[in-house]
């Protein structure tokens, strides 16, 4: 069974600290938590008391536990990642944090159906989805989910090209957390993952 700390550490490396990019639809964010999407996160009260403007990518150690608790409650637990293999949980958790739980799970269910499952693509991790996941090679699931994610990012980048470099760097980073160099890496090679600097 997957451990939250492992997946969280992977995602944490990509989320950074404070940001308030006017081009970002998420608006003001801290450690990837969007004020637009999660206005009730208790960390905002602390940030509102800080001297303005807050420097981009600033970190506040006081918020570390609050951020971790947020991600476990809002993403890890609802996605039932603890009932998955670590390699799949790593990919699904980060995808959901970056693009939303429903989108990530729908793409997971699409991958499972292509592998031979017969799931309703509803964006909800239920017993049927967990059972289907256990039937297939976990590296294949994780690798194919990352391919679905990159395809989605390439489509999204046509509308928001200013974020494409960062998004594709994140995809490349997630590739390094696939567990083996077998079928999944071979499939990823076909879509030509590239790191942009």
Write up this protein.
The chain has 197 residues and is mostly helical. The chain is built from 9 helices and 3 strands; from the N terminus they run αβββαααααααα. A hairpin with a 2-residue loop joins strand 2 and strand 3. Helix 4 packs parallel to helix 7, helix 5 packs across helix 7 and helix 7 runs parallel beside helix 9. The longest helix is centred in the last third of the chain and has 20 residues. The protein is globular, with a radius of gyration of 17 Å. The protein starts with a helix and ends in a 6-residue tail after the last helix.
SSE layout and pairings?
Layout: H1 4-15, E1 18-19, E2 29-30, E3 33-34, H2 43-48, H3 64-79, H4 86-99, H5 101-115, H6 127-133, H7 138-157, H8 164-175, H9 183-191
Antiparallel strand pairs: 1-2, 2-3
Helix pairs in contact: 1-4, 3-4, 4-5, 4-7, 5-7, 7-8, 7-9
Structural class: mainly alpha
Pick out the low-confidence regions. 180-197
The CATH superfamily is identified as Chitosanase, subunit A, domain 1
Radius of gyration: 17 Å
Strand fraction band? under 5%
Total E-strand runs: 3
Number of domains: 1
Kindly report the spatial arrangement of strands forming the biggest sheet: 1-2-3
> What order do the SSEs take from the amino end to the carboxyl end, as H and E?
HEEEHHHHHHHH
Q: Which geometry do the CA atoms define?
A: globular
The top level CATH class name: Mainly Alpha
Distance linking N and C termini: 35 Å
Looking at the structure, the CATH topology is Chitosanase, subunit A, domain 1
Q: How much helical structure, as a percent, in the residues?
A: 55-70%
Helix count equals 9
* Major sheet: 3 strands, antiparallel
Can you name the CATH architecture?
Answer: Up-down Bundle
What number is the mean pLDDT? 89
């Amino acid at each position: 069974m997957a451990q939250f700390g492992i997946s969280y550490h992977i995602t944490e490396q990509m989320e950074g600290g404070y940001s308030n990019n006017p081009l970002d639809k998420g608006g003001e964010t801290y450690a990837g938590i969007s004020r637009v999407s999660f206005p009730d996160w208790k960390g905002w009260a602390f940030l509102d008391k800080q001297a303005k403007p807050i420097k981009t990518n600033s970190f506040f150690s006081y918020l570390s536990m609050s951020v971790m608790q947020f991600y476990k409650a809002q993403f890890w637990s609802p996605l039932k990642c603890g009932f998955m293999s670590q390699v799949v949980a790593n990919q699904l958790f980060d995808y959901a944090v970056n693009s939303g739980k429903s989108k990530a799970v729908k793409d997971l269910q699409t991958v499972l159906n292509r592998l031979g499952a017969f799931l309703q693509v509803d964006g909800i991790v239920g017993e049927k989805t967990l059972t289907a996941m256990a039937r297939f090679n976990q590296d294949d699931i994780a690798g194919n989910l990352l391919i679905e994610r990159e395809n989605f990012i390439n489509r999204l980048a046509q509308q928001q090209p200013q974020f494409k470099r960062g998004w594709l760097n994140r995809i490349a980073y997630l590739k390094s957390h696939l567990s083996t160099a077998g079928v999944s890496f071979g499939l990823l090679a076909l879509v030509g993952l590239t790191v942009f600097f």
